[in-house]
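Tokens in:
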């Protein structure tokens, strides 16, 4: 990989690069390692709507998506309050099970979607022109204080668990807590059991001390499903170079986060800076440790948006901003073309689109 453009020089996507990117998207398994489509289900289904996932299929089809990783629950409920102020949902298990049922009902009613439980399923989705959903938890609060719940969630199809969201749970502290504690003994035991079952450990949102506890005991690849490089932008959610090297040392990887808040502070050319995050990680540890974790929110209507966000008063006016070149999963080809323009090879871009994720999950989803 050799960067063709200096930082700060605007990326101009040539017709040649865009056509090459379109071919790569068509040929590759394309995986979004973290999304938020499932959050759209609860409010709409409670209003009597069905086929909610079908609203998003045109964008997923246009972007060539093979699989999307989405959370059915976690430390924050997927349909009521987003507790960035540290307040936990009263019943995370119930809300996660309800979300799971919503997803299964939607998938069962569609011939275009499926739930993936292993990499064979993801490859099958690619071969049969379907979109696979991989079920995750964004924070381990639904397991409560009972490690046997990990087996139950595994049997229900969950294949990736972020140890915390921004706040504290029984495993450890998220980045918003402001404490310096690492993982609890329960959290360390949870990692061991997750690896034994074949559930991927995700450290996005985990605080620094918890991160280092995790990589010190992990025996399988650890991922940061939606984070960027703090060397490019020092947001608390981004990872420093030592952390990036440590993740790569486990065989894991980082999913590039497309939200402008995690790309840069006040940077106008967010797209170029997003590419700079990929360049930095690729130069530091290799492009094989980079993937897509865009965290792109779906096109919620105003009623859905307020049902999800308004109860959290500090986030009632929160908006989600992305580079115009990559503000929806229908624009994956733009990102691929940008990566080609800054010097990634076609093989490297195909890896970032999805093959790198498959390598990680082929290793971490094998039960011991």
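Residues out:
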């Amino acid at each position: 990989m050799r960067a063709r453009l200096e930082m700060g020089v605007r990326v101009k996507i040539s017709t040649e690069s865009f056509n090459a990117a379109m071919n790569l998207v068509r040929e590759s398994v394309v995986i979004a390692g973290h999304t938020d489509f499932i959050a759209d289900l609860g409010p709409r289904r409670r209003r009597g709507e069905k086929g909610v996932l079908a609203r998003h299929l045109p964008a997923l089809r246009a972007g060539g998506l093979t699989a999307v990783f989405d959370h059915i629950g976690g430390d924050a409920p997927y349909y009521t309050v987003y507790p960035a102020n540290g307040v936990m949902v009263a019943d995370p298990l119930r809300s996660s099970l309800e979300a799971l049922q919503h997803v299964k009902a939607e998938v069962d009613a569609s011939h275009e979607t499926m739930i993936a439980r292993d990499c064979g399923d993801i490859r099958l989705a690619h071969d049969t022109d379907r979109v696979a959903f991989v079920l995750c938890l964004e924070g381990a609060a639904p397991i409560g204080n009972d490690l046997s719940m990990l087996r139950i969630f595994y049997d229900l199809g969950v294949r990736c668990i972020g140890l915390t969201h921004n706040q504290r749970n029984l495993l450890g502290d998220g980045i918003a807590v402001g404490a310096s504690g690492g993982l609890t003994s329960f959290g360390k035991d949870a990692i061991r059991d997750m690896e034994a079952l074949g559930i991927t450990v995700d450290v996005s949102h985990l605080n620094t001390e918890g991160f280092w506890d995790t990589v010190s005991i992990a025996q399988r690849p650890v991922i940061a499903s939606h984070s960027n490089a703090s060397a490019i932008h020092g947001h608390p959610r981004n990872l420093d170079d030592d952390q990036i090297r440590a993740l790569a040392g486990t065989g894991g990887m980082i999913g590039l986060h497309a939200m402008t808040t995690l790309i840069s502070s006040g940077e106008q050319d967010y797209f170029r800076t997003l590419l700079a995050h990929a360049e930095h990680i690729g130069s530091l540890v290799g492009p094989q440790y980079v993937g897509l974790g865009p965290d792109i929110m779906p096109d919620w209507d105003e009623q859905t948006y307020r049902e999800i966000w308004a109860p959290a008063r500090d986030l009632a006016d929160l908006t989600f901003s992305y580079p115009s070149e990559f503000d929806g999963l229908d624009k994956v080809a733009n990102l691929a073309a940008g990566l080609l323009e800054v010097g990634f090879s076609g093989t490297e871009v195909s890896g970032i689109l999805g093959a790198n994720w498959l390598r990680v999950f082929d290793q971490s989803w094998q039960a011991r």
